[in-house]
Amino acid sequence: MERDTQVFNLINQELHRQRSGIELIASENFTSLQVMQAMGTVLTNKYAEGYPGKRYYAGCEIVDQTEQLAIDRLKEIFNIGYANVQPHSGAQANASVHLAVLKPGDRILGLDLSMGGHLTHGSPVNYSGKLYEAHFYGVVKETGLIDYEMLEKQARELKPKLIICGASAYSRDWDYARIRKVADEVGALVMADIAHPAGLIAKKLLNDPFDHCHIVTSTTHKTLRGPRGGIIMMRNDFENPFGQTDNKGNLKMMSSLLDLAVFPGIQGGPLEHVIAAKAVSFGEILSEDYTVYAQQVLKNAQALAKAFVDKEYNIISGGTDNHLMLIDLRNKNISGKKAEQALVKAEITANKNMVPFDDRTAFVTSGVRFGVAAITTRGMKENDMQFIADKVDRILMNSDDDNIIQSVRKEVNQFMEQFVLYPELG
Ligand SMILES: Cc1ncc(COP(=O)(O)O)c(C=O)c1O
């Protein structure tokens, strides 16, 4: 068959874009070459509905081993007893947990999307807000920190079945013990969605959610630096407390409910090529190199936050404990949308984001979110963060001046030449 130059030319253009720009989108990263190589393999041809050793298709002897490797390595990373590596994405991981634990109409309590939560934590535009009765907690206006008192009050009043913690745009660590305490009081389960900080948790640089949360979900492509995908985990298995029983009248174990929720609940055949790539990335996370990487992520985030604070940017909560920061641009007289558009013209990619108590819509927003997971993979260190803050500031202060933006773009392109990305790809 003739090579599809149309598609491969576009892929090359994307490689060039990733190489020449500064990637500050907090949910992105650059996988290793071997992670990508595992994805582009014959494993994509294999149907393997079911789980290792219990498949609905023949010929799964090899993919059983790659999937088992991914499971075993993931268990080792987080010191846990249960892992499901099949969810196609973070949203699928969360949907599976909901399907396993909840019935339609059940109450859930999550962080408001406009305060940093995720769509799958009960947003009205998402299945989680349509199928379940979703309620929300927020952050304290003055401090930008999770409003645990509000969470506790809501939990006591509403008695939700599931309390969801974790966020897409929250730069501080979580008090999982406090959430578990009120959950036990009201008979709720706790799900932590660690999609963003999972890599830092893996290296014990943040609080351990597994000590306190019944079920933990994550994506694999943010700080974990693996292929795009989702995972579901538990430190210890337990009997589902909500009374669903098997045909002998015994309460079902949560592990079997979660496995059934992923397949056949919401997915069909697993993406075994992606699962093999997950296994490769989990192997990398177990290495000392990755420990150094995770530590550098924290150092870079601290340095970048300080550089912005020095320029009088208002970081929500005043700083960061993890890899990201959310900046309220209202004192800089520029919307998140305009900031995003101006930055991208200079090949600095970041995303607009609502800030807590925002007076603009989700399409415009008053904030911008920056993360350092990707630039740390490129090899940047603390002293490179000043360059980034300087260039971002120059663009935001001159967002209507195309000459200035173009001159910053050239500086950005030149700067990025020293941080080589995928040299093997030519
Ligand atoms: C906290 C959180 N959960 C879940 C997801 C969903 O992940 P995916 O995009 O892989 O479905 C995201 C993605 O941004 C996220 O930030």
Explain how this protein is built.
This protein is α/β, with parallel strands linked by helices and 426 residues long. It has 15 helices and 15 strands. The model has no long low-confidence stretch (mean pLDDT 97). Helix 2 runs antiparallel to helix 10, helix 3 packs parallel to helix 10 and helix 11 crosses helix 14. The protein folds into 2 domains: 252 residues, Type I PLP-dependent aspartate aminotransferase-like (Major domain) (Aspartate Aminotransferase, domain 2), CATH 3.40.640.10; 131 residues, Aspartate Aminotransferase, domain 1, CATH 3.90.1150. The strands form 4 sheets. Strands 4-10-9-8-7-5-6 form a 7-stranded mixed beta sheet, with helices on both faces. It is globular and about 75 Å long. The structure holds pyridoxal-5'-phosphate. Pyridoxal-5'-phosphate binds next to helix 4. InterPro entries: PyrdxlP-dep_Trfase, PyrdxlP-dep_Trfase_major, PyrdxlP-dep_Trfase_small, Ser_HO-MeTrfase, Ser_HO-MeTrfase-like, Ser_HO-MeTrfase_PLP_BS, SHMT-like_dom. Keywords: Amino-acid biosynthesis, Cytoplasm, Methyltransferase, One-carbon metabolism, Pyridoxal phosphate, Transferase. It is found in: Cytoplasm. Its EC number is 2.1.2.1. Its cofactor is pyridoxal 5'-phosphate.
